[in-house]
């Protein structure tokens, strides 16, 4: 297993961050042979150019899926992910859009369908966060931006995708450990992740008659570009220390949760949240 106990100090100037600049690079390659669990299916992943999204894209590709992924502006990371998908023998499609726009989300789904002809798996994963040491520092503009990406984007992309998802399709949302524990420096971000838990539970009930399962994954401290793009060097160097396992997690330790929820192995699960978080026991 490729892992690091503690990341070395580092910082990036803008979000959502670039994987190419991280030292060491996150572990994103699947750690097991594929078993064709997603053979013939098409997945659409927001924030799929790096971090957890990239690891999910590669893991699903190894299981036979073709993958469209959305990214904001990290062209180099997106091209790297496309090359990695080709190495897995899969076909990828990189779509550069801002998911906080409903029109953009409609265009994302249209481009996916035009290229692949179908859609079976939607992974709502893109997110942003900003450290604020005092609650009063959260501006209205920032609050709207964080909710626009982390909540509205999930609603918009789901709304655009639903007419094209048939029975047996699935939606997987990314939440966070912060939805359950809170975070004193990421109050608005934690609020959005809590909203995603409620979205998952409510939407799963709403789509029962359509045969579409809806679940979520709530990762703990994972080594992704969002970390050095959010925190200062000291906080980055401590990322993961508080987890019971005593280290930061890797994206390829989280991706199998998404593959499981997308596959027939999880055919009796909907409205649930999985917790790859390094050992923190949570209720829910």
Assess the beta-strand content as a share of residues.
5-15%
Number of domains: 1
- CATH level 1 name: Alpha Beta
Q: Which structural class do the helices and strands define?
A: alpha/beta
Distance between the termini: 28 Å
CATH fold node name: Rossmann fold
Detail the poorly predicted runs.
none
Order of helices and strands: EHEHEHEHEHHEHHE
Determine the fraction of residues in helical runs and give it as a percent range: 25-40%
Family: Belongs to the short-chain dehydrogenases/reductases (SDR) family.
InterPro entries: KR_dom (IPR057326), NAD(P)-bd_dom_sf (IPR036291), SDR_fam (IPR002347)
Region (Disordered): 1-25
Biased composition (Pro residues): 1-10
Would you kindly provide a written description of the structure presented here, covering whatever features stand out?
- The protein is α/β, with parallel strands linked by helices and 284 residues long.
- The chain has a single domain, classed as Rossmann fold (3-Layer(aba) Sandwich), CATH 3.40.50.720.
- It has helices at 51-62, 75-87, 102-116, 140-161, 178-181, 187-206, 233-237, 251-262, and strands spanning 42-46, 66-71, 92-96, 121-124, 170-174, 213-217, 273-274.
- Strands 3-2-1-4-5-6-7 form a 7-stranded parallel β-sheet, with helices on both faces.
- Helix 4 runs parallel beside helix 6.
- The longest helix has 22 residues, at 140-161.
- The protein is globular, with a radius of gyration of 17 Å.
